Structure formats: structure tokens, C-alpha cells
Amino acid sequence: MKFSFSDYSTENFYDEMFNSDGQIRRGYEILKNKFEGLTSQDLLGRQQAAEHSMLSMGITFNVYFEGEGTERTMPIDIIPRIITGAEWAHLEKGLKQRIKALNMFIHDVYNDQKILNDDVVPRDLIESSQSFLRACMGIKPPKGIWCHITGTDLIRGEDGTFMVLEDNLRCPSGVSYMLENRELSKQIFPEVLASTGVRPVSDYGTRLLEMLQYLSDRPNPTVAVLTPGIYNSAYFEHSYLAQQMGVELVDARDLVVSDGYVKMRTTKGFEIVDVIYRRLDDTFLDPLAFNPKSMLGVPGIFEVFKNGKVALANAPGTGVADDKVIYAYVPRIIEYYLGEEAIIPNVKTYICREKEDFDYVLENIEQLVVKEANEAGGYGMLIGPKAPPEEHELFRQKIRDNPRNYIAQPTISLSRVPCMIEDHAEGRHVDLRPYILYGEDIHVIPGGLTRVALRKGSLVVNSSQGGGGKDTWVLY
Length: 476
Prior knowledge:
Blueprint: H1 29-35, H2 40-56, E1 60-65, E2 68-73, E3 76-83, H3 85-109, H4 114-117, H5 123-127, E4 149-151, E5 153-156, E6 162-166, H6 175-188, H7 190-196, H8 204-214, E7 223-226, H9 235-245, E8 248-250, E9 255-258, E10 261-266, E11 269-272, E12 275-278, H10 301-306, E13 311-313, H11 324-327, H12 330-338, E14 350-351, H13 355-364, E15 368-372, E16 381-383, H14 389-401, E17 406-410, E18 416-421, E19 424-433, E20 435-438, E21 442-444, E22 449-453, E23 467-474
Parallel strand pairs: 3-23, 7-8, 7-12, 12-13
Antiparallel strand pairs: 1-2, 4-20, 5-6, 9-10, 10-11, 14-17, 15-16, 15-17, 18-19, 19-22, 20-21, 22-23
Helix pairs in contact: 3-12
């Protein structure tokens, strides 16, 4: 039996492939024709082949629940998400604007603090942030860049407008799934890719390496990827990116500070490391400078960084712009530094530390999404319309106890994209995480990771919460 989208229903959500009248949206025509030229059994077989490939390639992540670690494959859906060239041009411009302003903000916070003196962002908000590192005061990182690798989460609302949901500037993950989803698309639908005109993402490893090398003034700088170790949830990605760049993957046992440099143990002795792409949080980086109990960091590495003898990407302290309460101020940050309005708007956000917003959130918590300032991965979050009354009350009390630590947003029905559910297509909610590299210039990878809430009716796209991934095709 031929596969068909004829029974597909948008169910009154904004759908990326079909409009509310069931008409195909621009960019999806070729995809629809190609899919409907195949049988349902054929597509089901390709879906199963993709899942088997993910397993055989070891594309996994770790989930920790009640103290037990579980390794899972990243679920993949084979129907790609398509973004037109015009849409992408708008997103690219907006993301470059946002990252440029955030980099200026981080530098200002740790140096002149003009934005705090002018009370555009409240000083006490910064000083109470868990991610504000006083040890970074006065630091000027190589080439003046703090946020070298960013994964910014975007969503479409009910009217199809793209909005920024949150910024990820510490150790954004998921880019390996973006790359492998594309490789699987090449294997499963080579004829569709060839006829659709999709921009490549396969040069990410090359661009990442070039960006990292740019941070050093030494000729032919040595680059390494620093991982917390094999038990980290994103260890597959750490090893994958090191392999893609052709550089060493190291942990704390492989590095030592000596003679004012960071050196790596090799079979030929110690070798100076010029640039480190670190995949562990700031406070675990150096037990001498931050958390003295850290067994994952390198003693003395922060002092070498301050002295300009090693570049760290992302720079320590970058997480201050990752705070979900700071997110609410980003439009003001963009206007302050660049004199421009934000090209991509934020989601409407209520700041619980502000009295009017505090009262509104407590009164309307059943309709809101409440987020903890420094949590990620779908944790520390309340989705009001789907939560029971006792959970509403629990979060009301949390907000009363520590209003600074919470924001709230309207519950937005994320846009949907068709997914293969058994042998037919059903709509599932998605977001988009494009990856931005900041080196000699700012480059936005054309696509990113589309995360999909595979559980019917779910709005949580995080892989640790039952979400999966889709290939994202940006058209020329």
C-alpha cells in the first residue's frame, strides 16, 4: 500500500509541512511527492534501518534516574524538517545579533560593568547568579571571545513566528546527533536529498577546528577536547567531535600544569596544549580556583588561562548568560550594546523576583510553564496545564521561598512536524537548536538539531525526557 499524507491532520496546531487548509507549505513539495511514491512498508523499513544504524554506531547518551545510569540510543524520526532559504536568512541574522550582544554582555559583566552601573540589568541579579564567577573579574579571553560554541533553542508559536526559548552557552550538546542524522538521511533518502537542494552541515568539524585554532597565536596550535569521562551523558559526543577534528580526547588524568603551560601526556613525553574545548562545567574545571572537591578538573589550569597561555572554549564564566532569568533581559541587552531591536523575539517571560510578575505567576500557575534558573534537560520545570494540583502548590512554595530562582512563560503549543508513527504519519511537537561558532567571524551552521517530542501530546523535546531528533534541511 502506498504511503500517503491524505489522512494526516494538523489538529489545529501550527504544522511545518501543511497549512490549516491542508495545503503543502513551500519547500515540502518534493519531499511529499517522494514519500508518497513509496509504500508504507518501505518507509517503515527505512525507519527501522535508521534506528538500527544509530545503535550499531554507538550513538548513545546516558540517563541518570534514581541513582542508576542507563545508556540509550538517540531516537530518530526519518521525516526531515525543512526550512526555506528566506526563513534561514532571517534566523541567521538574528542569531548572529544575539551572540554578538551576549558576548559583549559577558565581557562587560566581568570588566567595566557598565550595563550594571546603568541598571539595565540589576546588579544583584548578576551577583546572585550561580554561574557568576568572581574569579573571572578582569579577565580578557583570547581575541575577546567568551562564547565560542552556542546552541540556541528556538520554537515556533501558534502563528508560526520563530522565538528564542533559551540560550545554551556553557557546554551545549547535541551537535553530533545533528551530524549523524544527516548521514543517515544520505543513506536512507539519497534521491530525495539530491533533488531537494539542501545546504550541507558535514563541514562542522572543520569549522570547529578552525575556530579553535584561531584562538591561539602560536603556529599550528595543539587542540584537545576535555571530557569529564566515560560516565558523562554526552561522552559519545566528546569522542565523536575529537575524532571529527582529528585531535586528542583527554580527561583530567592526561593533563598537567607545568612551567606555566597546560601539558598533555603523550607516548613521547609532555606536549603543550594551546586550546582546550572543554566539555565540563565551569566549577569543575579547576579545584584550585573553583570547587576544591572536583576530581574532573586540572589543578592550576585557570591560572594558565588568566595568563593567556591556554585558550578555553567556552571561556569560564560564560554561564552567567545561561541563567534563565538573565534570558528575560536579552532584548534589553541587545538594545544596550547594539542599539537594535532583537530580530528574533524572546518568549513572553515573567520574572518572579519582580513583584507584579511574582503575583501573576502564583495566581495563574495552572496555565504557565515555570522554570528553575539553572536547570537544563527538562528538569526543574513545571508545565502547569499538565501538572496535578499538588505540584502547582509545590512550585508556588518554591517560588515564595526563592523568587529569584524562577521564571514563568505562557504554555506555548510548539509547532508540529509529521513523524513516522508505526506505518503512518502523525504530528509531533518540535523545537530547533542551531549551533553558532564564534571565531574570526560568527558562523551559524545551516540547520541544527530538530528535537521532537515523540510521546503523543508531549511538549518536552529533551532526549532525557522521551524526545528524539530529526534531520533539519535548510534549502538554498
